[in-house]
């Protein structure tokens, strides 16, 4: 079920002194804002458990991802929490204790599938980490293109080895691709908790918000910068970049050229040239 909740603000940026108040009963839902066309938010909404991933949240997350995938008006997607001090605390271990082995196996397969859906979205994605990102929560952020942490966040990590398991939703694989082998091993073997500044130093996150602002503030600024670009170009760029690790250099260059050539005859490309000539901002329509 898709829930569109319009949240009014007195400025383009979210003010950290005001708490989001969600009227949605969904545990995951999509937001869109008239003040920021082209930007959508996928909101996690289990405040009582710091957005621990339940069966219901996972199902609704997958439905949201399936919906936004086909929405050509979205140029950037932010993954966030509906409450300050939260992002995602990983799997709901309380619920997990009531599940059979078969149910656990299905949950892990569905979570893997959901993060694959997120990673494969055609538009750029940003994780706004305004609270603990633990286990599956950090793995969720790894499936995003960019990660922003709040300046006062103190718990970012993969604690699974302390719980007798390993990251099971892509953490061992995406951490290596993101951080390199030594840092991925260190993060997972020690189950260490990183602060936002340490996470930035490690390369786990790409930005940290300034004091007095939130990760969502910074993520929105970043999304606004991204949304100024042509939608078709953004999607082609993401596709070409994402394929780079799987292709040889020559094959990658061929793929890049093919992606480039498709854009040359687009209306957005012609609009960009006309806008440059007229010294005005281009008006892109994704055509």
Short description:
This is ClpP/crotonase-like domain-containing protein. The chain has 11 helices and 8 strands. With 287 residues, it is an alpha/beta fold.
How would you classify the helix and strand content by structural class? alpha/beta
* β-strand amount: 5-15%
Tell the overall outline: globular
Number of strands: 8
Report, as a whole number of angstroms, the end-to-end distance.
Answer: 28 Å
Average pLDDT over all residues: 88
The secondary-structure element order is: EEHEHHEEHEEHHHEHHHH
User: Which residues sit in consecutive blocks of at least 5 with pLDDT less than 50?
Assistant: 1-21
Count, helices? 11
Helical residue percent?
Answer: 40-55%
C-alpha-based Rg, rounded = 19 Å
Q: How would you characterize the largest beta sheet?
A: 6 strands, mixed
